[in-house]
Known about the structure:
Elements: E1 2-6, H1 13-21, E2 38-47, E3 63-64, E4 68-77, H2 92-99, E5 104-110, H3 129-162, H4 166-173, H5 181-190, H6 203-217, E6 220-225, H7 232-242, E7 247-250, H8 253-264, E8 268-269, E9 278-279, H9 286-300, H10 309-320, E10 323-328, E11 346-349, H11 354-361, H12 363-367, E12 369-374, E13 380-381, E14 391-397
Parallel strand pairs: 1-4, 1-5, 5-6, 6-7, 10-14
Antiparallel strand pairs: 2-4, 3-4, 8-9, 10-11, 12-13, 12-14
Amino acid sequence: xxxxxxxxxxxxxxxxxxxxxxxxxLIAAYPFATIKPNTGVGYVRVKCLCKDFNTRCNPRTGNxxxxxxxxxxxxxxxxxxIEGASEGKGLGNQFLNDLSRANAFIHIVDISATxxxxxKECTPDKGNPVKDIAMxxxxxxxxxxxxxxxxxxxxxxxxxxxxxxxxxAIAKQFSGLDVNEDDVKIAIRKLNLNPEKATTWxxxxxxxxxxxxxxxxxxxxxxxxxxxxxxxxEWYDKLKAxxxxxxxxxxxxxxxxxxxxxxxxxMIDYTPGNRDFKMNEEKLNDKQxxxxxxxxxxxxxxxxxxxxxxxxLDATVFSLLNYIAVFPAGATKLADSKGNVLPDCFLVPRxxxxxxxxxxxxxxxxxxxxxxxxxxxKQAIGKDHxxxxxxxxxxITR
Length: 398
């Protein structure tokens, strides 16, 4: 799974990325500080299965504190996008090529309105987060529309002569963006378009189709960043009213970065996503204590999701993409051959069956599948059984 961080220049993408991954990346208050994409690993929270069995696990990747399992997810921080990016303006072509592999987008928005459309610092009356969201949505739609327009005329004329499948032909053109035939068919039905008369589709029909396909295959969540700045709460309320269909979560990436760096240095005890932390007084000077107190009062005490960074990662995977976490686990033994207890946890789409999960673990497990066993209930389940979030599953093979 790959999640792309998108937004105009200087909106806080690199700060969010560094807060989520603790990778050393350039953070600068000028446009296009990020040129080449940064890739790293963030983590989403899952209530660990080890708690159900009153034991402690040994994660192969990520970590667990005895209650919460942090499962890795790949993140990509790309160059900022400005109006005209779909036509190559700024670093647009590179931006869009970098994002083609992403499963979902987190749009980092400067909710304080202190940067203009090109990412330059400005007074709050000059910035406009509502326009920032509309601009990026439009550029992403034009990206998809551009791909469609390049082939549309010859494509529909050929289909009219050969009577081939429209959905299959369109999916082929968008294969690099993970668009499949079912996606195309769903979009056509939703927009009430006639696939038998594609030559009659208007320019607006094509625009609506590109928009629908993009929303389905590259869903997006809004990170309302810099929520602790003056005037940010008012803009946040405006965004909620203007874009009721979007998932919008307030955050302060700068505060999360400070907390994670302090925790890494042993200055505080902090678990990402929590609304509190414990100071290690002997390791902090008065200035550091005052800064941490401000984060506590201005962010953690005011918002239900803490700094918002962890909540946004979780919501992207479990709400936006609708994934679940499944643990390979024996019905009678939780440890692997090396003695590691519940070493793995996999993120899979909701609706995944026991057989599909077996194939995800290894092709041979899928090919030789006999049945699976639910580690919690000890009950046998068949190949078509749909798995649930936090299931522990043992695959039985021939």
